[in-house]
Amino acid sequence: MNNKPLKNTTSLPLKNSTSMQFPNPPPQSPPHLPGSISLLDFLASNVVLGEEVYHFGHPHHVFHMVDVPEIFTCAGCNEKGSGKRFTCQQCDFKLHEFCGMVPEELKAHPLHMYHQSLFSSKPVKGGKSTCDVCGKPAKGYTFKCNACSYQMHPCCAILSNEINISVHPHPLRILHSVTTSVPNGDPGFVCGECNRAKRSGRVYRCTVCEYHLHAVCAKRMVNGLPANGKKKSSKLGTVARLASQVIIQLIGRLVQGLGEGFGEALIQSDPRGRR
Q: Which UniProt keywords apply (predicted)?
């Protein structure tokens, strides 16, 4: 590491805390707030110095933020991603932006508000193997409830009980459950992103119309991937360039000591038009 002066940052003071405080109870609709704080600004378990990050999971090398369209596998959560990531310039270790900035605990998360969830860097041997939000395998970084078996990927923890996406004009609210009483377990809707009906995990439904979105498809937006499936790196083209510009904003004040408002996760995906 050279001796050049480190750039100033906009990272928030830690105040001896590595937790993220969520509202209790969560709001029924996204609050309209004039300000927003990006993921790079929220409380983290790491030290941010200018554009350099020291991460506990890879302490012997420094990380730098890059924004490129190529698909990568996050060394933290083992989920795919595209666009912004922390990368080690001395080896092939890469992390999602949010996996590089994870807090040690979540308090009263909107999707699991009554218990505290603690960060875990690896799966518990013989423990639960899937995420309770997207229904996909949990192979690396997770948040695990310290009172029950609930767990979720860091990228799923970015989601909330109500979200807004750029491809649909109305707020989407997560359903408590999806009925399977109809023949063949058909839930009675088709996801507006992947055009499939039944998939693992939870489902969002529009608060105004019949638009539905799988939580796993919302997660792909968070990860910077096209919602209709992973594309080969050589064929990313315009869609991948748009995906690499995914913006995840947490409205309100995120960290303990700066207030208790979590606000809403705004997921900006490729602007393919309103549905």
A: Repeat
What is d(CA 167, CA 117) in angstroms, rounded to the nearest whole number? 31
Q: Is residue 181 part of a domain?
A: yes
Report DSSP state, residue 76: T
* Calpha distance 258→13 (Å, rounded): 9
Is residue 12, in this structure, part of any structural domain at all?
Answer: no
The string of pLDDT tens digits covering residues 181-216 is 445 666 788 999 898 888 889 999 999 999 999 999
273 inside domain:
no
| 233 and 214 Cβ atoms separated by less than 8 Å | no
Q: At 125, which amino acid appears?
A: K
Predicted TM-score (pTM) of this structure = 0.64
* Strand partners of residue 72: 81
Range of the domain at 112: 19-267
The counts of H helices and E strands in the chain are 3, 17
CA separation for the pair 32, 82 (Å, rounded): 29
Do residues 194 and 243 make contact, with C-beta atoms less than 8 angstroms apart? no
Give the number of C-alpha atoms closer than 13 A to the C-alpha of residue 51, restricted to the C-beta side: 12
Q: Per the structure, how many domains does the chain have?
A: 1
The identity of residue 193, as a single letter, is E
**Which helix (H) or strand (E) is 240 found in, with range?**
helix 237-243
- Please report whether residue 4 resides in a domain: no
- Sequence-distant (≥ 6) Cβ neighbours of residue 260 within 8 angstroms: 21, 22, 23, 24, 253
